[in-house]
Every structure is written in structure tokens, then in C-alpha cells.
Design a protein that fits this description.
461 residues; alpha+beta; 4-stranded antiparallel sheet; two-stranded parallel sheet; 11 helices; 12% strand
């Protein structure tokens, strides 16, 4: 029984070590699933969401300044000695004026007002009535800060969507490249075997067979490089998704459908670009800051109320309750308030200039990325037209080589030409996909990218 237990434990440990040493299986993800995962796990987006929540809490704090401020204060105090009112000198004068009156007939003019140890429990309340518009400006500024944080989060989501498109479809491009290189390697291997057979039959010279073997070695090297590129692209995608496991991209490269007119992207970008939205929110925030700075020049007015809850230790000089109105008029503070107004005005102007510049930059960026997508579409159409010719050229060179009318170099050149066309088609599709992601990001419409991906997609050659 003991031997059986040791054997079972050893087998279990060996199995565990085998599992640990084996490569983890890749997790298959569509682009939509990868995007949802990236938006929910990426650290930058999560940090931006925390900033939105913080801005929301700050807006709630600003709204709370409109309400009364009520607090309860409890104190237990000990002083060096009791507080006593002593009017004995008056008593002595009275005795001197009336010598016939015995001293015992006049009580001592001495009264203890405060013991050396006393307690207070006080309820205080203040309510601002007029603060020069500072409270309202603070509420609006906090609301603008919340909008700014939300636009920053949306901008990061757009950047992440574009990054995911680059890495996700970059992995698809690397996978297609590896498959194409593998197909070329297999085709050249068959050609090298055919060349060796023809050499044995005396149909071609030894140099032709050597050229075929050199081409095969070059194809093997390019295939190994394609495999390394695919592994690196897989690691990059896993990093974007904050995953330790490798990822299998299941959504193929797609042909970008006919784009809407560029004017639609430009008009939408002016309204929905997150960078512009954030600058507009910051400009509004600065405007409210200017209002608050101006409000410091006005008097402030408020109500206050005090209620003593523990009355046993109150003195004759302390009231049980009190209410009143308080007025604070700023007179002189070394020019600090005026300088704060000037600083707030300059900040508002600065953000206004930045907003105007950003609008022009966004328009130019949309124009550039729109042209990039159009260029990729044009390149794809040209490559697809060339592919048929390259395939026919390869077929003709293979038949001519078999008949002794072409060299091995002619065949390998035709193989490489067809490979360049196929990879060019893949690269043009990738450029179009990534360009579309960048265009939608510039227009503030990154959330629409899955709509284009789920349309009719076509696999690369």
C-alpha cells in the first residue's frame, strides 16, 4: 500500500511538471471580444475611470456648499483657578460710611462665575446667503471638471481601440504572412525536388538544381523570420489585453467599405473629438474660475446659530442660544484678489487659444487619415489586379522549366513575385483597417469600429 501511494504521488508530480513545462494554449478572441476585454482590463482606462469617479465626488462636494454647515462641538476644560468676581473694596467703603452697621450685616461682595473645571456641548450652524457667486461658480466648475475627466477617459478608450486594431490585425497580418511564407517554402521545396529529379535524368544542369536549393534555403529563412514576427505580434496583443496567455485572433483582415464623405467626419470631429471636448470643458472650468475670483471682491453674507446643549456649567455671561447674521467686507489684502482675477482671465484666454489651434489640428488629422484609408483602398485594388497576372506567370514558368525552356531562377523569381503581391494585398488591407481605426479616433467615433469589422469581411489571399 505504501509503495502504491508513493507511485501515485510520483505520477501526479510528473504530470504537474509536464503541464507546467508545456506551452499554454492560445485563447481565441474575436475583435469585438478583445475590444470589450481591453476596455475592461486596461490599466490606463481603469485609471481614467477612477479620475471620473473622483471628479464626480468633487462635484458633489461643490454642491454640498449650498447647504447649511452644522457641527457639534464638545469640550471639557480645566483652568488654573476658578473665575471669581470680587467687589469687597465696595463693601469696605460701605462699612466706613456706616460705622454703626456691623460687618456681619453686609454680605461679602464675592461671587464665583466659573469653576476651574467645566464642560460645554455646543451645536453650531452656518448658512451662506451671498458669497459673490463663488458657490455657484464652484458648482459649475466642478461639473466642467467632471466633463473633462469623462472626455479624457473617452479619449483613452479611442487610443486603446486604435492600439488594439494595430496589434490585433497586426497579429492577423503576421499570421497570414507566416502562412504565405510557409506556402512559398512548400512550393519551392517541390520545385527543388523536381529539379533534383530532372538533374538525375540529365534534363537540367547541376547549377539549376543548386539554384533551386539556394532558393529553398532563402524561403526557409524567411519562414523562420515570419514565425518570430508572429510570436512577437502575439505578445504585443497579449500586453494590450493585459493577459499572460497567448491570444488567437479569429477576426480576419477586412476590406474597408466605401467611406462616407470626408465632410461627415470633419463635422463630427468638431463636435465629438474627445481632445476638443476636454479643452472645451477646461475652458468652461477656467471661465467659472474667473467668476469665482471676481466673487472674492464682493462682501459675503451668512446666517449663524448657536445652541448650548449642556447648560449646567454655563455662566451668567454665556447665552443658551444665539442667532445672527454675519457680514464680511473685503477691504485690503495687498492686491491679491485682483491678481487672482488677472490670473484666471489669462488662463481662460490661454485655453481659448489652445482650443482654436486644436480644432485646426483635428481637421488636418482627419484629412490625413481619410487620405490614408483611400490610399490603402487604391493599393489593394491595384494589388488584386496584379495577383492574377503573377499567378499565371508562375504557372507558365513552372511549365517552361519542366520543358527545359526556363531556368530555376525564373521559377523562383516568379514565386517571389507572387509572394510579394500576396503580402502586398495583406499589407494594404492592414493599412486600411488601421487607418480606419485612426480616422474614427480622430473623429471621436472609435465606438463605431466594430460596425465596420462586422460588415462583410474578406480573408487575405
Amino acid at each position: 500500500m505504501r509503495r502504491f501511494e508513493l507511485t501515485a504521488i510520483g505520477a501526479f508530480l510528473a504530470f504537474g511538471m509536464a503541464l507546467r513545462s508545456s506551452e499554454p494554449l492560445p485563447i481565441a478572441l474575436s475583435f469585438q471580444s478583445a475590444l470589450a476585454k481591453a476596455l475592461s482590463t486596461n490599466e490606463r482606462v481603469l485609471a481614467a475611470q477612477s479620475a471620473v469617479e473622483r471628479a464626480g465626488a468633487e462635484a458633489a462636494v461643490a454642491r454640498g456648499r449650498r447647504w447649511p454647515d452644522i457641527n457639534l462641538t464638545a469640550r471639557s476644560t480645566r483652568i488654573d483657578q476658578p473665575i471669581v468676581i470680587d467687589l469687597d473694596p465696595i463693601r469696605q467703603v460701605m462699612l466706613k460710611l456706616h460705622p454703626d452697621v456691623p460687618p456681619t450685616a453686609i454680605p461679602p461682595f464675592r461671587s464665583q462665575v466659573q469653576d476651574d473645571h467645566f464642560n460645554n456641548v455646543t451645536l453650531n450652524a452656518t448658512l451662506p446667503l451671498f458669497m459673490g457667486g463663488r458657490i455657484q461658480a464652484g458648482v459649475r466648475a466642478a461639473r466642467a471638471g467632471l466633463s473633462s475627466a469623462a472626455e479624457q477617459r473617452r479619449g483613452l478608450e479611442g487610443e486603446l481601440t486604435t492600439e488594439l486594431a494595430q496589434r490585433y490585425f497586426g497579429l492577423r497580418l503576421a499570421t497570414e504572412n507566416r502562412a504565405t511564407r510557409q506556402g512559398i517554402r512548400d512550393s519551392i521545396r517541390l520545385h527543388a525536388e523536381r529539379a533534383a529529379s530532372l538533374e538525375r535524368n540529365g534534363q537540367i544542369a547541376r547549377a539549376e538544381r543548386l539554384r533551386a536549393e539556394v532558393s529553398l534555403a532563402e524561403a526557409e529563412r524567411e519562414l523562420a523570420q515570419a514565425v518570430r514576427d508572429e510570436q512577437l505580434a502575439r505578445l504585443a496583443l497579449s500586453s494590450t489585453l493585459a493577459m499572460d496567455e497567448p491570444v488567437l485572433a479569429t477576426t480576419p483582415l477586412f476590406r474597408v467599405a466605401k467611406l462616407p464623405p470626408i465632410e461627415s467626419f470633419s463635422s463630427q470631429g468638431a463636435l465629438t473629438n474627445p481632445g476638443l471636448g476636454r479643452l472645451e470643458a477646461e475652458r468652461q472650468r477656467a471661465h467659472e474660475g474667473l467668476r469665482a475670483a471676481r466673487g472674492e471682491l464682493f462682501p459675503s453674507l451668512g446666517l449663524f446659530a448657536i445652541r448650548e446643549l449642556f447648560t449646567r456649567d454655563l455662566t451668567m455671561l454665556q447665552p443658551t442660544w444665539a442667532v445672527g447674521i454675519a457680514l464680511n467686507v473685503p477691504i485690503f489684502q495687498g492686491g491679491q484678489r485682483l491678481q487672482r482675477v488677472n490670473a484666471a482671465r489669462s488662463q481662460e484666454q490661454q485655453l481659448g487659444y489652445l482650443f482654436q489651434r486644436a480644432r485646426r489640428d483635428v481637421g488636418l488629422l482627419i484629412e490625413q487619415r481619410y487620405r490614408q484609408v483611400e490610399e490603402a483602398q487604391s493599393q489593394l485594388a491595384s494589388m488584386e489586379t496584379t495577383q492574377t497576372l503573377a499567378e499565371e506567370s508562375l504557372r507558365a514558368q513552372q511549365l517552361a522549366f519542366a520543358a527545359g525552356l526556363a531556368t530555376s531562377l525564373d521559377v523562383t523569381d516568379a514565386e517571389q513575385a507572387l509572394a510579394r503581391v500576396r503580402l502586398g494585398i495583406l499589407k494594404a488591407m492592414y493599412d486600411g483597417d488601421v487607418g480606419l481605426a485612426g480616422l474614427l479616433e480622430a473623429a471621436g467615433q472609435s465606438h463605431r469600429l466594430p460596425e465596420f469589422v462586422t460588415r462583410k469581411s474578406e480573408v487575405g489571399p
